[in-house]
Amino acid sequence: MSIFEPKKIFSACKAILLDNCTVTPCGEDAETIRAFFSDRQIPCGADGNLTVTSQFCDTRELTYIEECRRVTDEKYILLVRQEESGLFAEIRHGGKRGLFYALCDLYRQIMRREVCARTAENYPLFRIRGYIEGFYGTPWKPQQRTEMLRLLAEHGMNTYFYAPKDDPYHRDRWQELYPEKELADLASLVRFAERNCVDFWFCIAPGLDIRYSDDEQFARLAAKCRQLFSIGVRRFGLLLDDIPTVLQYPQDAVRYAEPVNAHIDLTNRLFETLRHMDAGAELVVCPTEYHGKADDYYISKLGRGIAPEIRLFWTGRSICSLELTVPEAVLFGEHTLHRPLYWDNFPVNDAEMVHEMHIGYLQGRDAQLYRYSEGLVANVMPQFESSKIPLLTVADYLWSPETYDPLCAWEDALDTVVGADADTFVYFAEHLLVSCLQADVSPRMVDALSLLRGIGDVKKIPLQFSEYVSHIRACCDLLQKRKGEKLYIELAPWIEKFFVFADTLFLCERYLTEKDPSLLSAMRDKLRLFERLPEVMTDFAFRAAAEAFIQYESEGDPG
């Protein structure tokens, strides 16, 4: 279900075609409405065919989410009606973000060229909904960050964490201030995030070499935060992940005895420093032991030792958790006295996962998790364009976890990113569903190949198999035609392996028609090439089916 499927509908829906839309902004937020649509190349003028007005309502109806027991500024009611004088959209909202999401809702309808005339209420369930640029590898470019931020803001995300491991000033050279150019790029991103109702968090990772007991080093950490404070950052992350698990310096060992005590002291001191800069400053800490049973000694002591206002990252039972469940979240809260803020290591594919491409969908996250956590942020891939697909499914889950349908969300994401060719592209994309969340991939392929064993009569070749091969042929044509585009350049190594898969399949189809034994030999050669390529696709499922088919056709049924 799309995030713009409302929580409540108060009137019957009538679809109204709307071509060549021009918006007439009215009401107390007219300039905000004008700026929103103009920024998205929707013309605005006094004689538009869609009049949009808005009103802030400081009432329980629009400032409180019952399911979460939480006051919010993200709720809205969108009323669209058609009158003789034209088409009108009236927005009632509980704050700036409610207005923004209502405009996003309306914008999506305009882009579909079909507006729903109805009165509907909508709001998100997770408090923190976002993503973190926290991978090892070449950081994204500034223009990529703004593009992704806008896309995900328009799909309901409200949080972005800046934490690329290979930004030297984030981790290796954390004590040094940002140079002028890099600082200017961050300042521009902070302003862009504010315009799109996204909270910008700057993360710093000093744990590789910091001397916790050294006041001079802490002063440098504070100075770095003060520099970011000067460009508008008010939310900070202290990342203590992937660092030594013992105290490295004798003076630290004497003062703290064990790492968790040093981490508590550093976190609290930094939080106090930030609050002196601004009473509303926020801090989140990523612990060194950031996954596990949620009641281990380190995480329990850290949680109980830091100030209650500080948020605490957690990845779940594993670094890349198959599931995130309510019982584990409750256990985490009981032992740390903090509700977990999930750092979800999906779809990230760095480190030992570099040969995987995670363009599938989020699953295995409890529908009620929003009640027992601070929120969830997804760790992205170095491949910028490819990250859009899974992140859009994350956005759908975070907005409406109780109605989230993974496959529907994935189809919507493919439509958004790939466009009109999504129905063909999916025959390639389903080969890349493998990730920490899913081992079963390529359901269409498995179904098609399962029908082949023991076919002796050409006339009995299953229609389903022939249709599948036709779709694969069309998919190869598409991938070849669009190979110069950004998304397809990122996917090139996996596309190359997919072509080998397709060639093997085409040889199989020929063999079923011609029964030429040399085609079985050619299939073996293709299968060996497929196995040598390191990219992860449907390796086991395809190899097992292909080998079984070749063996059967070569030797006959041993039974």
Distance between the termini: 49 Å
Helix content: 40-55%
Numbering strands along the chain, what is their spatial order in the largest sheet? 11-12-13-14-15-16-17-18
Under CATH, the topology of the largest domain is which?
Answer: TIM Barrel
Shape by Cα distribution = globular
Strand count: 18
CATH class of the largest domain: Alpha Beta
| Low-pLDDT runs | none
Beta strand %? 15-25%
Describe the sheet with the most strands. Answer: 8 strands, parallel, barrel
If you had to describe this structure to a student in words, what would you say it looks like?
The protein is α/β, with parallel strands linked by helices. The model has no long low-confidence stretch (mean pLDDT 94). It folds into three domains: 8-122, 2-Layer Sandwich (Chitobiase, domain 2), CATH 3.30.379; 128-404, TIM Barrel, CATH 3.20.20.80; 443-555. Helix content is 44%, strand content 15%.
